[in-house]
Fold this protein.
Amino acid sequence: MSTITAIRPASHIDNRRTSTSLAHVIRSEATKLMSLRSTWWTLLALVTVTIGASTLFAWGQSTHLSGMSAKDIASIDVTSQAMAGLAFGQLAIAVLGVLVICSEYSTGGIRATFTAVPNRPRVMLAKGLVFAAIATVVGMITAFGAYFISMPFWAKQHMATNLSEPHVLRAVLGGGLYVLASGMIGFALGAIIRHTAGAITAVVGLLFVAPPLTQLLPGGWGHWVRIHFTSNAGQQIAGVLPSDSQLTPWVGYLTFTIQWVVPLIIGAWLIRRRDA
């Protein structure tokens, strides 16, 4: 005689997915991001490129002061120069910001993510918070590492600065904050473009290629564009010596922040409007 097996009603199916909290999504996104080898390699590139380039720059410039005038030597912002490698390291964290969003789109994994968490803005918020936390921590490690490794070269010339001096600690912390902002502009462009190669090309252009080219713009409007343009404005947070031709440190950083916050808002709107 056959036995009929009782089947549980559908109402007993685990429905935790419908009430997934932000904390759950953050934990999931952190696990996904930190389990990828590309994350670790990109962060390693950020640290090694920044510290390595800063060290070489400090070594080279500190040993070529004999042909400079006293006025030119006094105008050297040693603290800022100690973190000169951030100009190259920023690309690594910006690329990682792109990958945080675009990698799931390229593999199709984003569909599974949105199926598990239908609240798309919550997914994007979780990705952004996880990435921002990692970028901030690694950015601070990188900035302080570059500063402390570079200072002995300047100490030989009796030009080294100390964290207890006015504005020096702010500048080094600003170096870490600059890494965060560079990563977030990559994250924002990734949310808008959703294509890895296209977003990386855009972020390289905005952070590395276009800023020097703004020097070619003529007149007062050209100067205004130049001092407000992405990394030109953001890098002021890592400087100590004031400049009449540049924005002040916090104004410059706020300007750079606005330039990634606005695209991020656009990306958050688009992620709700477009298909996965």
